[in-house]
Automatic annotation (TrEMBL):
This is Adenosine 5'-monophosphoramidase HNT1. Residues 5-108 form the HIT domain. GO terms for biological process: nucleotide metabolic process. Gene3D superfamilies: HIT-like. PANTHER family: ADENOSINE 5'-MONOPHOSPHORAMIDASE HNT1 (PTHR46648:SF1), HIT FAMILY PROTEIN 1 (PTHR46648). The lineage of its organism: Eukaryota, Fungi, Dikarya, Ascomycota, Pezizomycotina.
Length: 133
């Protein structure tokens, strides 16, 4: 945690262009933006992956993202959150990107390699997941 760049931003050890701050949440501009207004929203509670953060510490995340969308005037945008290195997480502190998509070339580009699902396998998977919730 001591080396976590986001924890250091929260503590004020590293400067950030803060957009919003509360007891649980911090939002700031990304210093390597994909588009104008690209912002990060983080819980102040340190956890590497979403499942590591207590629910009460996540309660302000989506309302804060919604405020950012409104404040930036973005009509098209992506909300992105990665968990783990192979899922492209680079900073191992939960964070959400709000990335305005003002046109076809700016913002996040996505390749979605979808496959056709087998309905029987999907039904079984659905039951398996529901039984663990």
């Amino acid at each position: 945690m001591a080396a976590c760049i986001f924890c250091r931003i929260i503590k004020g050890e590293i400067p950030a262009l803060k957009l919003f701050e509360s007891e649980k949440t911090l939002a700031f501009l990304d210093i390597g933006p994909l588009s104008k207004g690209h912002a990060l929203v983080i819980p102040k509670y340190h956890g590497a992956k979403l499942a590591d953060i207590p629910d009460d510490q996540l309660s302000e995340i989506l309302p804060t993202i919604k405020k950012l969308v409104t404040a930036t005037g973005a009509t098209d945008y992506n909300v992105l959150q990665n968990n783990g290195t192979i899922a492209h997480q680079q900073v191992h502190h939960v964070h959400f990107h709000m990335i305005p998509k003002p046109n076809e070339t700016e913002g996040l580009g996505i390749s979605w390699p979808a496959t056709s699902g087998d309905m029987e396998q999907l039904k079984q998977l659905c039951e398996d997941i529901k039984s663990k919730m």
